[in-house]
Design brief:
heterodimer; A: 249 residues; 9-stranded mixed sheet; B: 5-stranded parallel sheet; 25% helix; elongated; binds flavin-adenine dinucleotide; binds adenosine monophosphate
Chain lengths: 249, 308
């Protein structure tokens, strides 16, 4: 049996920002990179399936540049069996899903897991677009997975406001995994070292036309923002207490 | 310009986001149709809605295959230029599938939309909501947008829409509703507190929580948390603020080490006074806070403890 997990190396903006010359993105010098939190949970869930069911191969798949291989290596260190990088630039969720679809279909997966969302762009869309391109049923925002390895799976889908739904889904299926479903394991140093040496398969794709283009990116207008309390922690604490007493009175 | 809105409903009740979508649709100008997918034509008639299209299906609750089939039929039949859905868990289950299948223009978590001649411009955030971006879409195709809940005020006045029906036959769902479960039960009701001290991942370790719990008691505040604190198992679900937790409107919301992700803001931005303490001056929480301190939460907590 095979489980494919789509994982993204996200970009994290620090406390300073500059934009590239055409104004359509942040200058990469201002961006750190790391494995998307939701995808660590998806990878963990796949590894746990293997631990429960035995003969399961966990294949992690990403779309991105060479730098995004770090996400794959982290998943390998966690225990994924194999890694594939689709050499394309992820622009929007729909064309990213197209880039993922070919490699995912080639693996004939019994289950495909993605994260609910990527923290750097909060699209919440790539997994479900991928399901459509693979012709598979899907459930979004899964907080519990109950599956014997064949036949329908029973999953919990998290709704708004503290409500969950129980859904029975035919397999193969695409599930988008929500944080809290598990606590992703840490890889030990040896596993991390070993993952550095592992081979990553690289494939091409034709992502096609993106579903949107960015015209310009900008820092949000801050005028309406907060009144800044400063003067050191003691003064900040004094002002907070003053405000609290005033507002609660 | 013709705009199609898909109503959202749960357990027989229309959800508020539907009427926010109506407001956004109206602002684009042109005709507005609202689709209701379900056994009954629920009341979604608001001023500015021209047509209600009921798509009768046997499934009372949301199932993504049903909604996908219905939306594809609606797009083929009504040929809308713009389709508006809420950026909700239900929409996340099928909207991107429709966009991928039909090759539509598409964006999610959109909080501003404007018309520019014949084309649509949408605004959304990137990189931890620290920057915004204006998007454009491929010409000559419908654009499907998932709008951020609470970004538009709900349409309120009664309308006088015509009602039509669109038949899509019966849909065999591959992912079937089996029941609901309430998850957020617990020790306190954070929705009735006047003063919440809310802590996020900035607290770093579980061991730091006891001291903040103590501080909240001293201050007369109720302790609330962001989602990662619940995910880690450090605090029960009932204390979580946000989209998948509770919506709160206290007199004072004091946020310690919370970045201000969209799903967190959804649950607290209606608070009367928001005070945020965060070491990152670019944190999105400062966009909704009334007062902000760029400071270490532990240093501020220590000083607060000395004062009470
Ligand atoms: C479907 C869905 C539903 C969700 N529902 C919810 C929900 O209901 N509620 C919710 O909260 N989230 C929800 N989320 C998760 C949400 O997207 C964010 O991941 C989450 O809100 C982040 O929590 P945080 O701000 O505590 O953590 P982070 O984003 O990690 O932020 C931590 C902050 O602490 C600051 N910090 C670090 N150290 C210090 C220090 N010493 N002093 C001061 N500041 C410090 C950092 O600068 C940072 O801004 C949901 C996500 C999805 C996909
Ligand atoms: N570039 C990518 N490579 C691989 N998977 C991705 C990529 N972008 C998004 N995904 C997957 O899609 C999920 C949802 O991301 P998004 O739709 O961008 O919010 C992520 O958690 C990943 O599982």
């Amino acid at each position: 049996m095979r489980v494919v997990v789509a994982v993204k190396q996200i970009k994290v903006l620090g406390d300073e920002v500059e934009f590239v010359a055409d104004g359509r993105d942040v200058d990469p010098d201002f961006l750190d990179r790391g494995l998307n939190e939701w995808d660590a949970c998806a990878t963990e869930e796949a590894i746990r399936l293997r631990e429960r069911l035995g003969e399961v191969e966990v294949v992690v798949l990403t779309v991105g540049d060479r730098g995004s291989e770090a996400a794959l290596r982290r998943c390998l260190a966690m225990g994924a069996d194999r890694a594939i990088r689709v050499d394309a630039e992820p622009l929007d969720p729909i064309s990213t899903a197209r880039a993922l679809a070919g490699a995912a279909a080639f693996e004939s997966p019994d289950l495909v897991l993605t994260g609910v969302q990527s923290a750097d762009s909060v699209q919440g869309s790539t997994g479900v677009a991928l399901a459509e391109l693979l012709g598979l049923p899907r459930v979004a925002v899964v907080t519990k997975l109950d599956w014997s390895g064949s036949g329908p799976a029973t999953v919990s889908r998290e709704l708004e406001g503290g409500l969950a739904e129980v859904v029975e889904v035919d397999t193969p299926a695409v599930l988008t995994i929500q944080t809290g479903i598990n606590e992703p394991r840490y890889a030990n140093l040896r596993a991390i070292k070993q993952a550095e040496q592992r081979e990553i398969a690289i494939v091409d794709a034709e992502p096609g036309e993106p579903a949107y283009r960015i015209r310009r990116m900008f820092s949000p207008p801050r005028g309406a923002g907060a009144e800044i309390l400063d003067g050191g922690p003691a003064e900040v604490a004094r002002r907070i207490l003053e405000l609290v007493r005033e507002r609660l009175a | 310009m013709s705009v199609l809105v898909v109503a959202e409903h749960l357990q027989g009740r229309v959800r508020g986001v539907t009427f926010e979508l109506v407001t956004a649709a109206r602002a684009l100008g042109g005709t507005v149709a609202v689709a209701v997918i379900g056994p009954d034509a629920l009341d979604v008639d608001r001023e500015g809605v021209d047509e209600i299209v009921h798509v009768p299906v046997e499934q009372a609750e949301f199932e993504n295959d049903v909604y996908q089939r219905a939306l594809e039929a609606l797009i083929a039949e009504r040929q809308p230029e713009v389709v508006l859905l809420g950026f909700t868990v239900n929409s996340m289950g099928y909207a991107a599938a429709v966009a991928a299948k039909l090759g539509l223009g598409f964006a999610s978590d959109v909080f501003a939309v404007a018309r520019d001649g014949d084309s649509i411009r949408a605004t959304r955030a990137f990189y931890g909501a620290k920057v915004h971006a204006e998007l454009e879409f491929p010409p000559g195709k419908p654009v499907l947008l998932l709008l951020r809940p609470t970004a538009w005020p709900p349409a309120e006045d009664q309308g006088s829409a015509t009602v039509a029906e669109l038949d899509v036959g019966s849909v065999a769902s591959r992912a079937r509703h089996r029941g609901f479960q309430e998850v957020a039960r617990g020790d306190v009701d954070i929705t009735t507190a006047d003063f919440l001290l809310s802590i996020g991942r900035g607290v770093g370790e579980q061991d730091n929580i006891a001291m903040l719990e103590e501080l909240s008691e001293k201050l007369g505040a109720t302790l609330a948390v962001s989602r990662p604190i619940v995910d880690a198992g450090w605090m029960p679900n009932a204390r979580q603020v946000g989209q998948s937790g509770k919506t709160v409107k206290p007199k004072v919301y004091l946020a310690f080490g919370i970045s201000g992700a969209v799903q967190h803001l959804a649950g607290m931005k209606g608070s009367e006074t928001i005070i945020a303490v965060n070491t990152d001056p670019e944190a999105a929480i400062f966009d909704v806070a009334h007062y902000g301190a760029v400071a270490d939460l532990f240093e501020v907590a220590d000083e607060l403890a000395k004062l009470v």
